Amino acid sequence: MSGHVHWIEREAPGLTTALAERLGRRAGSIFNAMGATACEAVAGRMIAALAADLRAGKDTAGREAMLGLIQQHAGAGLGYADLRNLATTLRALVLASLAAAPEVEAAERQRVDDWLFQLVLVGAMRFVAHREQVFQEQAAQLEVRQLESQLEELKAAYDEKTHLLETIRQASTPIAPVYPGILALPLVGMFDAQRAQLLTERLLQAITDARASVVILDISGVPVFDTEAAQLILRTAGAVRLLGTEMILVGVSPAIAQTIVGLGVDLAGLKTLSSLQDGLAHALALRRLQIAPMAASGKR
Amino acid sequence: MRHSKTKGEYNGAALYSFLLGLGHSEALVQKVLRDAGVDRIDPDRWYEINWAMDVYFAILEKIGRGAMIAVGKKMIETAPFPPGLDDVKSLLMGLDAAYRMNARAGDLGSITCAFDDDHSATLVWTTLGPCPLNIGIIEGCCSRVGAPALVEHGAGGCMDEGGTSCTYLVSF
């Protein structure tokens, strides 16, 4: 058995005790917090690893002991300062012990020093790797939280927008009773399938409630009148007709008229007039009514 | 959050230099100060210490731990220091005196510093300010003299979480 193996087996108990005592001394360190028994266990594993590696001529046990220490305690707050404290304290104790052991040859002393150096390297590397993993996990969790937050914001914005659009639709589809039996609907804004559905539902209910026989639909406020819009209006007119009510389409500008012709849409089943005024006059005529000037009063 | 029970005072200059460190967040500073009932900090007067600490913690709540550390670091890196404080040891050992120059109260707490060797120190703080600011101040002391440091919060509790002290393990 070589000198350094004799030396470590003789000195191991004393080194373990001294290392445990010094590790636990530093305020704020993980070793101080873990208590004397746990500290003794850490010190014992390190000294046992040194002895095993000196016997085997390797550094495997030291690497495994350091890895085990980091894996076991990193989550509980083991920091770089703790590893530094462990490495410097262990080194100081071991070198002091070697200095008092003349039987250990120079090459064997160098072997111990190399082992201590490897322990520092592997400790730092494992510690950085563990930190990197923690940071990556934290970054991933943060990204997920940010994405969830963005999704919630988008959903809230979508709900608000939907609510706002609904309010606008309700407000932009007024049904005005202009005379008993006559309703007027001035359409303002885009006329799409959803709005047509809403309009038809409300109009049919209003016709029933007002017992209307004529409905005037004013499209002068509709900016785009395309094939789809025309089909939707024809469908609404069809539903209105089923209730025995006639629909008059007014507000057909020259541009819209050209568009309708260009699109080849057949509005033959629908009475169309250029202005709301014309529409109202026609509706009154259908009810055998007319707007006439009031008779001048003879009294003063 | 910890409060002084002795109605102490805090130097406006210290608070002012901290707010200068937050320079890029002018709107945030204005909001926190408005919430605290003032328009600006006068560096030539002293403020009620608990009110000043409330300002620190209000800013911490808004900017978060990482930004608070950065502000503390920047504050120390740019602050005027007396001549002679030109190495890590003298700066860290002088922190308690610097704290006492900026705060007056019977229960201020203290900053103790012990050097474990030439390149590591253990600092124990029982002061009133937020923990991340302390870390930034320690980092600032080290980087100010060209010794970037690793400052780790030691075991044994944190004042921001109800502990009685914060221990910082500094490697530089």
Architecture overview:
The complex is a heterodimer of chains A (300) and B (172). Chain A is of the alpha/beta class and 300 residues long. Chain A is built from 10 helices and 5 strands. Chain A has a 5-stranded mixed sheet, sandwiched between helices. In chain B, 45% of the residues lie in helices and 18% in strands. Chain B has helices spanning 12-21, 26-36, 49-63, 65-78, 88-93, 95-102, 131-144, and strands at 9-11, 46-48, 103-104, 111-117, 120-125, 150-153, 166-171. In chain B, helix 1 packs across helix 4 (65-78). In chain B, a hairpin with a 2-residue loop joins strand 4 and strand 5 (120-125). Chain B has a 4-stranded antiparallel sheet with strand order 4-5-7-6. Chain B has a 3-stranded antiparallel sheet with strand order 2-1-3. Chain B is of the alpha+beta class and 172 residues long. Chain B has a single domain, classed as H-NOX domain. Chain B contains 7 helices and 7 strands; from the N terminus they run βααβααααβββαββ. Chain A binds chain B through residues 26-30, 32-33, 76-77, 79-82, 84-85, 88, and chain B through 114, 116-117, 120, 122, 124, 150, 152-156, 167-171.
